[in-house]
Amino acid sequence: MTGKMTTRHFSFLLSRCFISFLILVGHTTVLCLVDEKLAVHPTTTVAYHFTDMMNGTTNASAGEDILPFDCGNNSHNCKNFCHLCYEFYQGPTMDCLSGLLNLCLHTFDVEMAQNSTNWCIWGNVSGSYSNLSLCTEEISDCLLIPWPNPLVEQIFVDIHTKFFKDCPTEELSDPPPVIIFALVITPICLIPVMVSLVVLKTKNGDGST
């Protein structure tokens, strides 16, 4: 009876020790995993997000600072633009410029969509228009592509066709018919007057001699 009690007691103690060991090991493993996650720093990755690039929040990693082509330095976004072109186009090509300029155009479209005022009044759209111009100039300068260029010119042709085609162009319209008639008839009337003066002067000169 005493042997059975001893065996049972020993088994009970062994079970408790094993359970405690499992708990201890599990707890230690969890602690190790937590410590390991805290100790290991995440690998630096460069994510090219257009909006972040425009806000200047995306920075190229230190290992990617060397580019096989020249990159402009007129803006803090230049490195991001150049790295993007290198990653997807192997260089500052016109295709890459076209893709980046679409960012400028998209931003302009959003601002115009949010602008419920009259687009034909320059004061209402001058800010967005200037931002679009500066955006295209910044990207072109970063890629060392002359500005303006055919892609930029096409963008402005497109936005004028899309947003400002119905705006009156009074500044460029023809003057009233009365003004046009006066401008045309004045030199015509002066011709015979000038001819008469020349003839009269010639006669007076002949008579005096």
From TrEMBL:
Belongs to the RAMP family. The keyword Glycosyltransferase does not apply. It comes from the Eukaryota. One of its GO terms (molecular function) is coreceptor activity. Keywords: Cell membrane, Disulfide bond, Membrane, Receptor, Signal, Transmembrane, Transmembrane helix, Transport. One of its GO terms (biological process) is intracellular protein transport. This is Receptor (G protein-coupled) activity modifying protein 2. Pfam families: RAMP (PF04901). It comes from Sphaeramia orbicularis (orbiculate cardinalfish). It is found in: Cell membrane. It is a single-pass type I membrane protein. The chain crosses the membrane at residues 178-200. The keyword Transferase does not apply. InterPro entries: RAMP, RAMP_sf.
